[in-house]
Amino acid sequence: MSSTDMMLIILIIISHMLIMILGVGLGYLIWGRQMSVYEKPGSFLKSQGKDKQSNSIEIDDTKVVLSVNTDGYEKKFDNMTKETKVKNNISSSVNKLKNMKGK
Amino acid sequence: MIGLDVGTSFIIASSYKGDEIVFKDFRDAFYVIKPTTPIASKMVEKGLKGKVFIKDEAGSFIILGKDAIEKAVERNETARRPMYRGVVSVKEKEARKVLAYILKEVVGKAKKQGDKLVFCVPAQPVDQEDDDFDVGYHEDVVKSILSEVGYDARSVNEAEALCYAELEDTDYTGIGISCGAGMTNVCVMLNGEPTVVFSTTKSGDWVDRMSAVATGEPDSVVQVEKEGGGFTVGEPNDNPVLSAVASYYDRLVEYTAKQLSAALAGHKALPKFKDPIRIVVAGGTSQADGYIAKLNQKLLESEFPLPIEVVKHAEDPLHSVSKGCLIAASILD
Fold it and tell me: How many Å apart are CA B262 and CA B259, to the nearest integer?
């Protein structure tokens, strides 16, 4: 095999790799956002609400003020909610889910 | 421990009290009156006697809950909301502060520091392509507010909470659809594991808005008429407001069914269910007469990709998500 043939083969391989990389990039640009909506969701049952998505942006609450001061409000009512009482019918759900969680 | 449904239209807390569950409902709305003179301030305060309201440092009166809607309707205006499409409203300057006040009042101070509280958050919408919607900030703000009153607050997806409350009979396998005011949230669950979650951004508020545009009435007026009932989804009505509401409800159900079918058709994460699945529907928007039957019909028409066992209403549609949050809080370590 001559050196020209070798060069040609290497050139073909490199050009194919470039085309593949471009294809992957283009696919990500077109479908990347929708894919993130369809990612498998985290389960509360397993994570217990603790896990954060690895790609989520963390907010540093020492720099960003998230707390809201409501001291300036003067309360002018006794009760603001409407209360309803029902018999506790969720014990079996809780037990079943605890078992499913592997407790 | 507390379960908390932080919704666009209702905030509902649930907790145990002996062998009962207590639900505390609060209408998520406010209306501000800014008196111009000290005499006007006294007159306004007198007029608000018996209503739920607070007074801010500037002397303005902030009427809260259903009283806010009543006052807005009285003045032919629209009550404001601290939430918009399931998250803290960025349209309302006072939203965060009012929401913080409402949340603190509804849940009260934690009995002991670090009491468990689980609140619901919406999923990412499939019908909104821009980056305007992000649940992260909303989640952090709510967590921060609740931690100020001593709770260890964690979040769960709204429709996932609904599945916990309503799918025990099917071993937590099926689909939960939570039709709130701002959004419709969907969770496909297999043996307690959410496999697909998403939301759509059209729901009860969209019906109010479109009907308000069609009839020239303020949104609050439409909302009050709508909640008074007296109409069936998709059927003609003599009252022009209810006629518009019934018509837009029909469109909403069709839109939701189409979005649901399109989002699930060919979805990579959709499990292969061996039996027809149960679809359970909850939320204030689903309480309209004929909603469930119409949804069933539209799902079949839109070639829903899974065989359906039944489309059923939750036992207590307004409280189901809060109940699911309480169940979630109860399974925490």
Answer: 5
Tokens of B125: 């919408």
Cα separation of B313 and B68, whole Å?
A: 29
CA distance B119 to B86: 12
| pLDDT tens for the 333 residues of chain B, in order | 999 999 999 999 999 998 899 999 999 999 999 999 999 999 999 999 999 999 998 899 999 999 999 999 898 888 888 888 778 777 777 788 899 999 999 999 999 999 999 999 999 888 876 666 677 888 888 998 999 999 999 999 999 999 999 999 999 999 999 999 989 999 999 999 999 999 999 999 999 999 999 999 988 889 889 999 999 999 999 999 999 999 999 999 999 999 999 999 978 888 889 899 999 999 999 999 999 999 999 999 999 999 999 999 999 999 999 999 999 999 986
Would you tell me the crossing angle of helices B95-107 and B135-148 to the nearest 10 degrees? 50
- Judged by DSSP in three states, B206 sits in helix
Query: By the CB < 8 Å criterion, does B170 face chain A?
Result: no
CB atoms within 10 A of CB A15: 10
Judge whether B63 and B73 are in contact, CB under 8 Å: no
Tell me if B236 sits within 8 A of B246, measured CB to CB: yes
- Report which of B313, B283, B323, B285 is spatially closest to residue B23, judged by C-alpha positions: B323
Structure tokens that stand for B242 in this block: 């209810």
pTM, whole model, 2 decimals?
0.85
Type of residue found at B200: T
Kindly determine whether residue A83 and residue B198, on different chains, have CB atoms separated by under 8 Å.
no
Q: How far B149 CA sits from the closest chain A CA (Å)?
A: 11
| Cβ-nearest to B331 among A56, A83, A94 | A94
Distance CA B120, CA B185 (A): 11
> Which value does ipTM take for this structure?
0.81
User: Which segments of B7-125 are extended strands (E)?
Assistant: 10-17, 20-27, 30-33, 53-55, 61-64, 83-84, 87-88, 115-121
Please list every residue in chain A whose beta carbon sits closer than 8 Å to the beta carbon of residue B100: 68, 70
Q: How many CB atoms lie within 10 A of CB A69?
A: 10
Bridge partners of residue B151, in order along the sequence? B115
The CA distances from residue B234 to B64, B244, B300, B301, in Å, are 33, 9, 17, 15
